[in-house]
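Hi again,

Forgot to attach this to my earlier email, sorry! This is the prediction with histidyl-adenosine monophosphate bound. I've pasted everything inline since the attachment limit keeps bouncing my files.
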Amino acid sequence: MARQISAPRGTRDLLPEEGAAWSRMEAIARDLSDRYAFDRVDTPLFERVELFARGLGESSDAVEKEMFRVSGASGSEEERAEWALRPEPTAGIVRAFVEHGMHVRPGPLRLWMLGPMFRYDRPQAGRYRQFAQWDVEVLGDPGPMVDAELIELAHRFLAEAGIQDAVAYLNSIGDETCRPGYRQALIEYFGQHEDRLTDDSRRRLQVNPLRVLDDRLLDRELAGGAPRSIDHLCDACREHFNAVLRLLDGLGLRYEIDPSIVRGLDYYTRTTFEFFVAGRRGQQQALAGGGRYDGLAELLGGRATPGIGFGLGIDRAMIAAAEAGATTGPGTLVAVVSADPDVLEPRLRVANELRAAGLRVRPDGSSRKLGRQLEAASKLGARWAVIVGEELDQGNVVLRDLSAGEQRELPLGEVAAAIGSG
Ligand code: HAM
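Structure tokens for the complex follow:
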């Protein structure tokens, strides 16, 4: 036998038994995007490295360590240096916003996307090299209400997915007015403890001291004593943050203020947040994360446009939902069988009529004995079998309840209703 080939490390195959749960996550994302009046966009899976370097920051882990470089089959070294698989969607969406002059549209713009992201990170449980995000972004809205609206939306998704005990951890990391003072405070603080920093952090300290705070190997005690951005906010940022908190209080949402939520990407300003299952705050356990990025559009060559959004990890949400006991199966399965091996086209016709009535239907095209077909249907998880025979000339079929072992003849048009009530 030929040697088997396995999936790349850090990737997951979605197996048939997981398909329904995955589809349910996607369905919730689509439904909420629609109900919250977001419009769908899609951007390429790969972009110029420069987009991520400028948007996410040269010294972010996503750019410095986790970039998946790509090139064509004949790609030159130069091309290889140029493109990368997207590690996240926000930079691409804002690039598209700028490129298509979307600022002239009636705004604020509310955009959503669902798709795979790629980070060349060390794989672990819950941390993959390819993972999917549901992402929402609002462009052109500076006010605090939309911050609260988005936090509520992430909460809503998790609750609808069956994860009832998700908590939002919030912070504000200031803007161009107060950030310089905060950076200085961090440089001074960590500068006094350089011997306790990792090589990475020592290098990043002068360029971007905020990145020291999301160093996974940062000494906990040192992190705990570090200056907090919320103590360095300017009046406008403080007022914005307080307004967001008041709105969340008004909505009765569960949140905690957590000064350690600085996020790993440079584009953030003001409100930042992450969602975790209460009491489970590991590195790879965030279910969603996001925040404001009021300077990103300008950084990417567009007009100054405030922005805010979040990404929710579909893989992690699916795992957390399963752990919370949310069960998802596909719709009730109906098998279409017949004792007559020549009755093939009627099986298909009956199957189509039942599908048109909204049922999930699987016709058996074999010439096995009827008993064997019914047995096979049960093994496949069918709850009902529709037996096609001579009665079809009168428009009737036999409906068999496979778990009770009872059956009766009825008009084909009444099968869906009979199944619905049985
Ligand atoms: P992020 O926090 O890097 O933010 O990712 C958002 C979510 O994607 C995480 O909370 C997590 O659920 C999931 N995720 C991230 N990395 C992995 C991984 N390696 N394996 C599995 N799941 C993962 C962003 O990407 C920002 N673009 C969010 C945003 C939108 N900010 C503003 N707008």
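Residues 88-90, 119, 121, 127-128, 131, 133, 135, 137, 286-291, 293, 309-311, 313, 315-316 surround histidyl-adenosine monophosphate (CB under 6 Å). The longest strand covers residues 109-118.

That should be everything now.

G.
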